[in-house]
Amino acid sequence: MAPSVTSTVTVTEPVSVPKNLKTPSTSAPTRNCSRPIPSLPADLGLLDQIPAPRALRALRARQRRRHHLPRPPQPHHHHQHTHHPLAGTEVRGVQLSSLSPAGKDQLARLVAERKVVAFRDQDFKDLPIQSALDYGGYFGRHHIHPASGAPAGYPEVHLVHRGEGDESSKQFYASRTSSVAWHSDVSYEEQPPGTTFLYIFDKPETGGDTLFANTVEAYNRLSPLFQERLHGLQATHSGFEQAAASLARGGIVRREPVANVHPIVRTHPATGEKSLYVNPQFTREIVGMKKEESDAILNFLYSHIAWGADFHVRVKWEQGTVVVWDNRVTQHSALVDWENKQRRHLARITPQAERPYETPFQG
Ligand SMILES: [Fe+2]
Question: Residue ranges under compositional bias (Polar residues) (predicted)?
Answer without folding.
Answer: 22-33
